[in-house]
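Input sequence (76 aa), recorded before submission:
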Amino acid sequence: MDGKHIWYYFQDSQGEDSSVKMMMSHGVFGETIGAPLISQMARQLRLTKTQFLDFIDCTVSETDYRDILREQDETV
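Predicted structure, token format:
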């Protein structure tokens, strides 16, 4: 935890934290996340904005996500 932020790490296939991480801020309850923050979160997860929106809509599975990262030569 970093002040008002929490870092989430994606684990590789051995259960170790990978280089993929995302920072979550504690916003105001009911606050809408704007386009700049969505883009930043997508970049942190190594996704396009469209892939990220699919990811949060749960139409991208963990397997799909790992495949996306492998295509980018990320160790997962």
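Checked by second reader. The chain has one domain: 5-71.
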